[in-house]
Amino acid sequence: MMGSENVEEFKEEMESLFLREESDRDFNGDKSNSNYRSAMSTLSDSPHPSILVTPADSDPLFAPPSYYSESRSPRSKPNGGNRDSSYLEPPSYADVIFSPFDDNSEINGSDDGGSRHSQSSDTLSRSSSSLSSDFIKITVSSPQKEQEATNSMIPGGTTYVTYQITTRTNLPEYGGSDFSVRRRFRDVVTLADRLAESYRGFCIPPRPDKSVVESQVMQKQEFVEQRRVALEKYLRRLVAHPVIRNSDELKVFLQAQGKLPLATSTDVASRMLDGAVKLPKQLFGESGGASAVEVVQPARGGRDLLRLFKELRQSVSNDWGGSKPPVVEEDKGFLEKKEKMHDLEQQIINASQQAESLVKAQQDMGEIMGELGLAFIKLTKFENEEAVFNSQRARANDMKNLATSAVKASRFYRELNSQTVKHLDTLHDYLGLMMAVQGAFADRSSALLTVQTLLSELSSLEGRAEKLEAASSKVFGGDKSRIKKIEELKETIKVTEDSKNLAIRQYEQIKGNNWCEVERLDRERRADFLNMMKGFVVNQVGYAEKIANVWTKVAEETSQYNRESS
Amino acid sequence: MESTEQPRSISGSMQSPRSPSSQPYLSVSVTDPVKLGNGVQAYISYRVITKTNLPEYQGPEKIVIRRYSDFVWLRDRLFEKYKGIFIPPLPEKSAVEKFRFSAEFIEMRRAALDIFVNRIALHPELRQSEDLRTFLQADEETMDRFRFQETGIFKKPADFMQMFRDVQSKVSDAVLGKEKPVEETTAAYEKLKHYIFELENHLAEAQKHAYRLVKRHRELGQSLLDFGKAVKLLGACEGEPTGKAFSDLGTKSELLSIKLQKEAQQVLMNFEEPLKDYVRYVQSIKATIAERGTAFKQHCELAETTKLKEINLDKLMLTRSDKVGEAEIEYREIKAESEEATRKFERIVNRMEDEIVRFQEQKTEEMGVAFHQFAKGQARLANSIADAWRSLLPKLEASSAV
């Protein structure tokens, strides 16, 4: 029987709990969403799954995709799944008051296979069973402000934030087991850009947004924290990718001390220069310094204006069905797949939105239960203090039972919710991955466009050569200037022919990458989604049982008031 | 819509019409709400069925048609005549316009009115009231006439609210000591007043949270419904076994959504409404406290005046004035009034003593029932949630093993 001092203590702890949460909730809608978001992101602490080591390939674009077959080991029972079991340590506020997590034993001992399953983390993991001893774990921490060194006369440079990126691994490709570097966000952008260039056709996890606007609106601290979490998630996804984790770019990013030795995306000036030098040559269709390899890189930014124009013209003519390009995206399978992916993306977006609402509703339920409990605690105290009649004391006792259970139930709702967030987070993750798929498909389309452009250029060059030859042959004794032109043209044709062949090879390679990636994604997604559902359901069952117990107790304690005839 | 169940938490042998005929009984039910009239004039009428063997009544069974304002009339009459007794409260008059004729609201009001009448019928003093008999038996025209006759003017609901507010402000003035200190100062009564005022605050808070709890149930139900639909659509995009799993998940989600809506309604009727009733009861007590204050003031003032008249009379008698006769008559009159005022005041005090005991016991009982039903409902809900989700597990296990 709770004496009044215990009620007081109880109340104070509950009140301080509530007060703490009150101050977190300044506005209703947005804050709860951002709380959800930060809850979602901070809950990604689950240890990274162990990943199969694959032989590093020098240039994944040109190596046959055979290594994929090695990683397709049977997905048998897991070990340390990345989507953890539902009964993680209760959050710290569980330490408050209720030592009776005696309910725990009830659940553990219960017959229900479902809840016990969760304990043995019988979750589907994407890790393959064989080489589970290899691991690589990345942590992003301790953001710090630093000053940009500036040579200008104006005093004071801009400040930026760096993050410490710690890697722990036992993979041999890395020259150590534990190392740390400091990077700023700009470095991450560079890494992402370089990866996008090197791994065309792959589903590369999208990097965190630059979101300049958010950085103005949010509190600096909150923004930095959000970014830290996003970076961690991004890097962990990168190392989870069986191909990208072996990339030189990533290794360099994680290991190289000091300034990041990757060409930056903003290094436009020098590139502009390169581009400008090459431009006249490209303009006249002459080989000059433009090597085949450079030509088949996707046309981008300040560099390849002319090429952009050409490809644009080509894509327009493709669309209008003007000239019939020899290589057309006839691959119905691809188009169907693209369509399906698009549908899937829409549904994932929808589902993840509804998941957010569900989480919010669960959260609200928990909160109001708690507040109700608190109100009744106050009433209990009040009645006890003012009691003149025994009927009052009896009522106070009934209220106390109700209040205790309401507060307990409230806590369970909130725990349930934090677990639910972890599970349904999978939907959010896949949103990012769907973007990666789009990227991969886009790589394919742009490679195809390059091929088509080269093909049509080739045919027009050949056409010109033919005409020149025809004209020249009519001139008796040969036409010196024309012959010279024909020779030069033939040079260009040869280079273009080489480029075309390269482009086709590249396109095929990308197609292959696409296919493997999509296969891998489908497989992993199936497993992840099933995992998610299982986790979610097990969670719901477990906590519903706990909540039921709590209320059954009150029903028993008030059984004398049962007025039903049955 | 017949009310076939016993009124909430009223116990006692007075209810059963099947008790041996030698035992006096008076049983009332408010049933069958029907919407009458059109547009702004529309209102709900109820069938009030009285079953009794009491001689004062016109027979073993009587059915009349009554509307909300008739109940208000009854309450006001009882309030006037039975000072000191905590008159059972009525459900609020005003309601958000579009809600006014919703099935939920109508049922809740009917139940509340049923309880109201039954509480009166069970009260040892109130049940003997002539006004109650009128209410239960008079034909509709007579009832209308009585209602209009109240003070010669047709009382609008606003008037009642104003009266109530006046009473409340008088009471709080008294408590805050704004008036001249013509009030009781016994420790016990002070304690009681303080208790009642504080109690109202606590209860109002609890009731507010209870109402929000109802809303949250509904919101959770809605979000489960939306989630279920979304997940089903997602499943349609996926191949097996994920597709089927999503479909099952969605179906369960939708099912649970229905259960949540049902529970929301239960919480509203069996938990939030009793809390609201508790609050109303406390407000009724505050009105009685105000009456007691008025009566006390009157008793004091008249006692004072009587004394003055007595002194005056003595003076006149000493001076052998010819105004003695007049003064003596005045004095006797005032004295009678004063004694009447004192009697009235003391009756209020006595009644209140009994009423407090009764009130506390009644509330413990009623709250106990409410808590019990609430706990049972929540347990039932949680269990069905657990069952529903649990039924998915074997299939999910099977799918994962593939």
Structure description:
Chain A: Residues 141-260 form the PX domain. Chain A: One of its GO terms (cellular component) is Golgi apparatus. Chain A: Residues 334-361, 451-506 form a coiled coil. The complex is a heterodimer of chains A (566) and B (402). By secondary structure, chain A is mainly alpha-helical. Among the domains of chain A are: 136-145 and 159-261, PX Domain (2-Layer Sandwich), CATH 3.30.1520; 334-562, Substrate Binding Domain Of Dnak, Chain:A, Domain 2. Chain A is built from 15 helices and three strands. Chain A has helices at residues 4-24, 29-42, 67-71, 103-109, 113-119, 185-198, 212-217, 220-240, 248-255, 268-283, 292-296, 305-320, 332-386, 390-474, 480-557, and strands at residues 136-147, 159-169, 178-184. A three-stranded antiparallel sheet of chain A has the order 1-2-3. In chain A, β2 and β3 (178-184) form a beta hairpin. The radius of gyration of chain A is 32 Å and the shape is elongated. Mean pLDDT of chain A is 72; it is low at 1-6, 17-131, 266-291 and 321-327. By secondary structure, chain B is mainly α. Chain B folds into two domains: 26-146, 2-Layer Sandwich (PX Domain); 187-401, Arfaptin homology (AH) domain/BAR domain (Substrate Binding Domain Of Dnak, Chain:A, Domain 2, Up-down Bundle), CATH 1.20.1270. Chain B has helices at 68-81, 103-122, 130-137, 140-149, 157-176, 187-237, 242-318, 324-390, 393-401, and strands at 26-36, 43-52, 61-67. Chain B has a three-stranded antiparallel sheet. The longest helix of chain B is centred in the last third of the chain and has 77 residues, at 242-318. The interface between A and B is large, with 71 and 66 residues.
